[in-house]
Amino acid sequence: MLIMLLHCYFHGLTDAIDDVVSVNWQMFTNGMSETNSSRVVLRDVSPKAFEGMLDFMYSGEVNLENTMESGAMLLQMLLLSDQFGVTLLHQECCKILLECLSEDTVCPILQAVSSIPSCKLIEETCERNFSMHFDYCTTASIDFIFLEEANFSNIIRHPDLTVTSEEKVLDAILMWGMKAKNAYGWEVVDELMIYSTPELLFGERLESVFNFLSSVRFPIMPLVLLKKLEKSNISRHIPSFDFLVKEAISYVEHGLCEPEFDQNVRFQLRRSSYKELQYLCDGDSNGVLYFAGTSYGQHQWVNPVLAKTITITASSPPSRFTDSKVLASRTYQGTSFAGPRIEDGHSSAWWMVDIGPNHQLMCNYYTLRQDGSRAYNRYWNLQGSLDGKTWTNLRVHENDQTVCKPGQFASWPIIGPNALRPFRFFRVVLTGPTTDVSNPFNICICFLELYGFFH
Predict the structure, then answer these.
(1) Which of 19, 59, 301, 344 could form a disulfide with 293 if both were Cys (CB 3.0 to 4.6 A apart)?
(2) Domain 275-454 sits in which CATH superfamily?
(3) What is the pTM for the complete model shown?
(4) Phi/psi class of residue 74: alpha, beta or left (left: φ > 0; alpha: ψ in -120 to 50)?
(5) What is the pLDDT along the chain (455 residues), one digit of tens a residue?
(6) H/E element, 353
(7) Contact call for residues 289 and 328 (beta carbons, < 8 A)
């Protein structure tokens, strides 16, 4: 059988690709013309992926170069292994895909495996991963509009769907229905409906959109937003949308109107929901560290480091002037710094916050306060991590001149898709010298606060 595949492969390379020809093991054994043919041409088969499959047959290992194309190569090998019934290769490809699965790769993987019955586990895992990172997956890229109806339906109806607001669910449904070329909210669709109709905007996906609207939990939307939706062109053109919005307004204004409401999931908060902790001003009481100090709203504030709801560590050993309690306290400290340490051959100074194993934060704002020194930070990053080892830059500061006084507060927004990625660990890490000539690699801050959507 291997000889036959080799023969197919090398002859296939020399032929132009015209039409798709589906090939499987049966063509060599069931009396078809290929059984007795000395030449079988496989069209639309990636030569590299085919070569990878043959290499696996000899070595028993999947050898992928660490390049941008390796992900696509792996998916092609998965399809080939399913097509030719190479079970061990199929299992190995599935294993690698699951290990590589992230919110950045979930859409292309889901699109590739949705048509392969033997990849049901990967398909379900992708749907759950997408649902748990819904904000990011529908904002960082619009690839989700290419998902099959069944997959998208499973995502928006998934019990683990985690989203910062129901408005995000509505926006995603409308974008999917329109096969949007850019990311936008319902307001854009509303404007388009001034001169168009749902039939023209959604085309063959119209009925699917109608069905998906019932998955939006309108009753947990703010009343102000519901009033806007009630007056929208969408509500005027789509009766089912209008009904759902009016029903939600009645619920918000008057409470439960029907006995079955309390059993309907549309009237319940999602199991995995975020609490918005919004930045108002420097040194306010709205951030994550303050919230943790109240045991998440249960009692009056105490230092969360002492209460052990938050853990703060530094790049240098604890000392009188490197005290983790200081950064979470509400009092000014004249001298508070983290000194440098050698990591991976480089000098690094940082303060790190762990919000706990049961919590995550989509950080969209943060505040620092300079200690009493004049060692002002100019080059540093705010980073997030799920495991405390692999870090993602949330905001990069290059020659930032904001801080120019001892004891000064300063705050910055986190913008872009990474503001929608949940993390457990956060750190402020120095990437260049401060303005202090004598100790340029001490990071001197006496207060840190994080804001965003907390789970």
Answers:
(1) 301
(2) Galactose-binding domain-like (2.60.120.260)
(3) 0.69
(4) alpha
(5) 444 443 444 444 334 333 333 344 444 555 555 455 556 666 667 788 888 888 888 888 887 776 556 777 888 888 888 888 888 888 888 888 888 888 888 998 899 888 888 889 899 999 999 999 999 999 889 999 999 999 999 999 999 898 888 999 999 999 999 999 998 999 999 999 999 999 999 999 999 999 999 999 998 888 999 999 999 999 999 999 999 999 999 888 876 555 555 567 777 777 666 889 999 999 999 999 999 999 999 999 999 999 999 999 999 999 999 999 999 998 999 999 999 998 888 889 999 999 999 899 999 999 999 999 999 999 999 999 999 999 999 999 999 999 999 999 999 999 988 888 889 999 999 999 999 999 999 999 999 999 999 98
(6) strand 350-354
(7) yes
Cα 63 vs. chain centroid, distance in angstroms? 28
Say how far apart CA 348 and CA 343 lie, in whole Å: 6
CATH number of the 1-100 domain: 3.30.710.10
Neighbouring residues of 243: CB distance < 8 A, sequence distance ≥ 6:
none
- Do the domains at 1-100 and 275-454 have one common CATH topology? no
